[in-house]
Amino acid sequence: MRLSLTTWNINSVRLRIDLVAKFIKATRPDVLCLQETKCIDDAFPLKRFKRLGYEHVALNGQKGYHGVAIISKLPFDRTDVRTFCDKIDSRHISVAFGEKAQLAKPVVLHNFYVPAGGDVPDPALNPKFDHKLKFLDEMKACEPLHPRGEDRHILVGDLNVAPFENDVWSHRQLLKVVSHTPIECEKLLAAQAQGEWFDVARERIPLAEKVYTWWSYRAADWTVGDRGRRLDHIWVSRALKDTVSDFSILRDARGWDRPSDHVPVTVTLEV
């Protein structure tokens, strides 16, 4: 069975529902994972997604900030929400696809929105950065995030860290900028290693090549200098590594009318 999955920090699902619909009509992924939905669950545009053919929705939202959602053509066997750092701030949701989706072997999908961390890369001075570092530590320590053996797991989302030199427009200039500081990169890669995860983008695109999924709103023209960062990730467990048949980043979406500062990232697997 072919499974296509997209992750996208949409930066307000209600504000950008027309952009989501445009993407869906053109691409038709089986599963869409959104971050920064910025709305309570009761306000989520369920009817619009159902008209688009997505009957199955798992939500973890809150008013005005954060929020994650999984929208799917395929039914879920179960859903789960985890909290980190003793905060109920809508940063994780997971689902399992199994018999209801007619899969012989189940697939577990985690959707994350890791804290951005503010502007000052010092946990003693910046509580937001301290929160981010602790969140990454808890991701490493969380046993359900560590697939083993034949576990077929996928972890996606805005992880808010660009871990490699060519995941940012200038490694040297961003070493002291939140999202690419050495401590953040170290902690994200430690969480990845603990789960024996494979980073799909860097499995398919050499480390020597620049890869971005985010461009700041602060630039008057995001294309000038191409000052991007790779903040959005798709990881798969060892059992799914060889099932990946396609991967793409829809860079053009950054140039749409009133866009998110992130763009859709899509993987296709033969499950």
Description:
This protein has 271 residues and is an alpha+beta fold. It has one domain (2-270): Endonuclease/exonuclease/phosphatase (Deoxyribonuclease I, Chain A), CATH 3.60.10.10. It is 20% helix and 25% strand. The chain has 6 helices and 14 strands. It has helices at 17-27, 46-51, 127-141, 171-174, 182-194, 200-204; strands spanning 2-9, 31-35, 56-60, 68-72, 78-80, 92-97, 107-113, 153-158, 198-199, 214-215, 228-229, 232-236, 244-249, 265-270. The chain has a 6-stranded mixed β-sheet with strand order 3-4-2-1-14-13. Strand 1 (2-9), helix 1 (17-27) and strand 2 form a beta-alpha-beta unit. Helix 3 (127-141) packs parallel to helix 5 (182-194). The longest helix is centred in the middle third of the chain and has 15 residues, at 127-141. The protein is globular.
A few lines on this structure:
The chain is 20% helix and 25% strand. The chain is α+β, with helices and mostly antiparallel strands and 271 residues long.
